[in-house]
Amino acid sequence: MDVEAARYLGAGLASIALIGAGVGIGIIFGNYLSGALRNPGAAQGQFTNLLVGFALCEFTGLLGVVMAFIILFT
Amino acid sequence: MASPMEQFEVTPIVPLHLGNLDISFTNASLWMCIVAGATALFLTMGASSRRLVPTRMQSIAEISYVFIADMIRSAAGIEGLKFFPFVFTLFMFVLFSNLIGLFPLIHPFTVTSHIIVTFALAIFVFLMVIVVGLARHGLHFFSIFAPKVPFVMLIVLIPIEIVSFLSRPISLSVRLFANMLAGHTMLYVFGTFVIGLATAGGVLSLISVMPLLAIIAVAALEFLIAFLQAYVFAILTCIYLNDALHLHEHH
Lengths: 74, 251
Known about the structure:
Structural class of chain B: mainly alpha
Strand content of chain A: under 5%
Oligomer: heterodimer
Low-confidence stretches of chain B: none
Number of strands of chain B: 4
Largest sheet of chain A: none
Helix content of chain B: over 70%
Mean pLDDT of chain A: 87
Helix content of chain A: over 70%
Distance between the termini of chain B: 56 Å
Shape of chain B: globular
Order of helices and strands of chain B: EEEEHHHHHHHH
Number of helices of chain A: 4
Largest interface: A-B, 14 and 17 residues
């Protein structure tokens, strides 16, 4: 296989990481929302945890993007 | 068509060389100066009037002050407020470089879209957490790697804790850098859609409205992300500081 073609395929495959990040962020916000609707009083106190969870989850997906950039541009 | 990565290129404005080192004044340095200047100007102007009924400028400056102070208090306790100037500076710098990078027309350079900038910020936070922890707890600081669990579990948990501790500067810097890089690349790619379709003529020119609307939505999202990433950077700094200050107990 051509090296250039393999490189583009690899970058595309690295983007699969975004599936996991999307599912994870959906679970985090969905669960926060369902918890917040059950007990709105406690929702504000957990907002920090929500954002931290979101950040950690997003990071795993972004690693895939960075990998794709490294494959494409080095 | 130029590559979507062209907007991140660092080009020297004033070429300078010190031996083999290239210390040129680049567009990155220029925009970093602009960001620092804009932050200083904004806060000085906000704090200078000191009216009982605040002006808009003063109001925004006060809101950002109270916002960060509340965040530190809830994440790192009262003792964390000692580090308010540090966290506030970090937050304002990251926020302003993210926001200034989104300005249209003037072709700004997003300082935080370069990993070396975000990594320098993150490694500083990392080292400061270690120094604060060691100064406060001495060698007892290393119990941060050993949560209060049965002894058998420690064999598994200590390596995990060490790896997660060491990966902090990487995750902190890559998150900010990749968000900015991906956001600006996405805006550029949508922009090429608009130009490509509009110049194609016929029905395709009419369709070019759709990516244009998408750009507006994406730009709005980018402003949200610009704020959110600055906030996440600051709050993770507070959480790391809290770990160093209080080890495992909750404040």
